[in-house]
């Protein structure tokens, strides 16, 4: 299995587990139970500690791994012609904001695996820090955009 396939499989499995709230660790819990829908599009998102990604996969995609590093994963699907939809490219403007109001921009990196397209952005956090995420999503070729907002608390590994 290629590194790309392993990363895609991990992110897909992680998203399913997170959305189902089946994972017992606090950092695996994702605040969205279903995708954000606007127009003919659905936006799936999750955020998690970067240590959930294996070192070789992180290296392949130039993702910074560490006990205080996290990743946001976003995928956009056009569901106009089918329930499961079709992956589409998108542009993003995003940021994190901590409880002190400090902001940090999110820079998304596109990952393609077969028909799947998803985007990852790294961010830093402190132990037990709650971050607010705000990401403006605009599907390629569409005049529609939607801002996805959620909050999540993160925990450093080993604390």
From TrEMBL:
The keyword Lyase does not apply. The keyword Signal applies. Pfam families: DUF4426. Residues 1-22 form the signal peptide. Keywords: Signal. It comes from the Bacteria. Residues 37-157 form the DUF4426 domain. This is DUF4426 domain-containing protein.
């Amino acid at each position: 299995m290629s590194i790309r396939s392993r990363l895609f499989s991990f992110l897909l499995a992680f998203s399913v587990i997170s959305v189902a709230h089946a994972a017992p660790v606090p950092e695996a819990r994702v605040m969205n139970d279903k995708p954000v829908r606007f127009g003919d599009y659905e936006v799936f998102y999750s955020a998690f500690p970067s240590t959930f990604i294996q070192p070789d996969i992180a290296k392949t995609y130039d993702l910074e791994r560490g006990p205080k590093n996290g990743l946001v994963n976003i995928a956009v699907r056009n569901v106009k012609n089918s329930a499961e939809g079709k992956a589409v490219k998108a542009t993003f403007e995003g940021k994190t904001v901590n409880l002190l109001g400090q902001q940090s921009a999110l820079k998304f990196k596109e990952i393609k695996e077969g028909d799947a397209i998803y985007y990852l952005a790294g961010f830093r956090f402190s132990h037990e820090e709650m971050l607010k995420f705000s990401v403006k999503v605009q599907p390629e070729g569409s005049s529609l955009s939607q801002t996805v907002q959620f909050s999540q608390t993160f925990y450093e590994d080993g604390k």
